[in-house]
């Protein structure tokens, strides 16, 4: 075998060891359409929580939260849980997990695919501490077992609506954020919300496309009991 081919094979092995393979796509449990807490109770009990127990959440609960945020809810797979101007869906959800993030899942950064009800692990780097530092040093964020980052790709809406599409994407992120909050309460979980961070730092450290503008960071987990 020539030196060139030996080098190519060696490089592929090294790259393979450091990157995630297709095996890192996780099919999520089917979300439920029934809960134990009324909408009124969930709204009443919703608070921004900034203190989390170091306990992993269940995979079924992560699935339910992601469904409430952006899951497919109707019209042949075309409509989602939160409204979207022109049904163009400019938002993406990224999930950052630490060591004790979600039962059965490895730490890392994951991307949610609503139509497949699955998540894909993009990297094994958890980076919650770095994320908290990029959020003006709000270190409570790193305490949460799960951190959801909502991003917007404006091109998906500005093509139809022009510059006003940017505003629509921001509004939509608010809907998604509230759905996450309400679903978290209904599952006896707690969520926080963070808008104060340096966008470019978050994009860089997460390694996501530069066109995916982070709008909201939502730490999630069990509230720490006093
Ligand atoms: C767009 C937005 C950005 C926010 N950013 C932060 C933040 O960076 N850090 C923080 O601790 N709270 C943040 N909050 C939470 C607010 O401080 C909180 O919603 C407010 O104090 C009302 O409390 P409640 O959510 O518990 O009702 C943000 C809320 C919103 C809606």
Label this structure with key terms.
single chain; binds flavin mononucleotide; 9 strands; alpha+beta; 226 residues; NADH Oxidase
Percent of residues in beta strands: 15-25%
Report the sheet with the most strands, covering strand number, pairing sense and barrel closure: 7 strands, antiparallel
CATH class: Alpha Beta
First and last CA, distance = 65 Å
Q: What is the helical fraction, as a range of percent?
A: 25-40%
**CATH homology superfamily name:** NADH Oxidase
Which molecules are bound in this entry?
flavin mononucleotide
**Overall domain count:** 1
How many helices? The count is: 8
Mass-distribution shape: globular
CATH architecture: 3-Layer(aba) Sandwich
- Sequence of strands across the biggest β-sheet: 1-6-5-4-7-9-8
Average the pLDDT over all residues and give the rounded result.
91
Order of helices and strands: HEHHEEEEEHHEHHEHE
Q: What is the strand tally?
A: 9
The low-confidence runs, each spanning 5 or more residues with pLDDT under 50, are: 4-20
**Alpha-beta content class:** alpha+beta
What gyration radius follows from the Cα positions, in whole Å? 18 Å
The CATH topology comes to: NADH Oxidase
How would you describe this protein?
The structure is a single chain. 37% of the residues lie in helices and 20% in strands. Strands 1-6-5-4-7-9-8 form a 7-stranded antiparallel beta sheet, sandwiched between helices. It has a two-stranded antiparallel sheet with strand order 2-3. It has 8 helices and 9 strands. A hairpin with a 4-residue loop joins strand 2 (72-74) and strand 3. Helix 2 (39-45) crosses helix 7 and helix 6 crosses helix 7. It has a single domain, classed as NADH Oxidase (3-Layer(aba) Sandwich). The protein is of the alpha+beta class and 226 residues long. Flavin mononucleotide is lined by residues 47-48, 50, 138, 193-196. Flavin mononucleotide binds next to loops.
């Amino acid at each position: 075998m020539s030196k060139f081919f030996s080098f190519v094979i060696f490089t592929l092995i090294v790259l393979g060891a450091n990157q995630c393979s297709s095996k890192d796509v996780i099919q999520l449990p089917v979300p439920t359409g029934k809960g134990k807490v009324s909408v009124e109770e969930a709204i009443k009990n919703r608070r921004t929580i900034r203190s989390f127990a170091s306990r992993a959440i269940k995979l079924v609960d992560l699935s339910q939260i992601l469904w409430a945020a952006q899951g497919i809810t109707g019209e042949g797979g075309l409509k989602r849980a939160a409204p979207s101007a022109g049904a163009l869906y400019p938002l993406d959800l990224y999930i950052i997990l630490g060591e004790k993030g979600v039962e059965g899942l490895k730490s890392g950064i994951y991307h949610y695919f609503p139509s497949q009800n699955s998540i894909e692990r993009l990297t094994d780097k958890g980076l919650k501490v770095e994320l908290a530092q990029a959020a003006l040093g709000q270190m409570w964020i790193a305490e949460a077992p799960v951190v959801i980052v909502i991003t917007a790709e404006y091109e998906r809406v500005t093509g139809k609506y022009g510059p006003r599409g940017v505003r629509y994407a921001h509004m939509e992120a608010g809907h998604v954020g509230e759905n996450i909050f309400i679903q978290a309460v209904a599952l006896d979980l707690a969520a926080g919300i963070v808008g104060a961070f340096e966008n470019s730092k978050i994009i860089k450290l997460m390694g996501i496309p530069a066109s995916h503008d982070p709008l909201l960071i939502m730490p999630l987990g069990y509230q720490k009991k006093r």
